[in-house]
Amino acid sequence: MVREKIRVSTRTLQWKCVESRIDSKRLYYGRFILSPLMKGQADTIGIAMRRVLLGEIEGTCITRVKSEKIPHEYSTIVGIQESVHEILMNLKEIVLRSNLYGTRDASICFKGPGYVTAQDIILPPSVEIVDNTQHIANVTEPVNLYIGLQIERNRGYHIKTLKNFKTEVIL
């Protein structure tokens, strides 16, 4: 019979912040060390922390975009340089802050030509934009751009299901 020696550490775990910085208004970075760990424990703890953070982190974001003139996500709009897909990706990058839970409505009303940025979003009083300079679209011709937005504050990572693709796009 072969017996393996199991080493049990009597030292206490130490949690330490090694590096912390603010790269921009929207991007924070931190690196931490947790030690000592036995073989295999780091992966187990890392996976568990990722799941907990995704499930418990709170945030406010744009969850739905509506426009009458857009037939589907991959179409283009006359007079706008970006495709609808690129505009949606730019809207997903906008960082919002709110103290109230639930759903709020917002909109973008813009008359071109010009650059549409996050400061052009008409927000309810309970919501604020962290970085107003975030680019959304470049309107190259004198056209009116109206986009209805739905903003939600919630906890956890949720994947929305598509209800009616022709009239609304879900982020």
Structural description of this entry:
It is a single chain. The protein is mainly beta and 171 residues long. It has two helices and eleven strands; from the N terminus they run E-E-H-E-H-E-E-E-E-E-E-E-E. The strands form four sheets. Strands 7-5-10-3-11 form a five-stranded antiparallel sheet, covered by helices on one side. It is elongated and about 75 Å long. The chain starts with 13 loop residues before the first strand and ends with a strand.
- Strand residues, percent: 35-45%
Poorly predicted regions are none
How much helical structure, as a percent, in the residues?
10-25%
Number of helical regions? 2
The structural class is mainly beta
User: What is the overall silhouette?
Assistant: elongated
Biggest beta sheet attributes: 5 strands, antiparallel
> Could you tell me the radius of gyration in angstroms?
22 Å
Can you list the strand order of the major beta sheet? 7-5-10-3-11
Secondary structure: number of strands: 11
Oligomer: single chain
Mean pLDDT level = 85
Intertermini distance: 59 Å
What are the secondary-structure elements, in order, as H or E? EEHEHEEEEEEEE
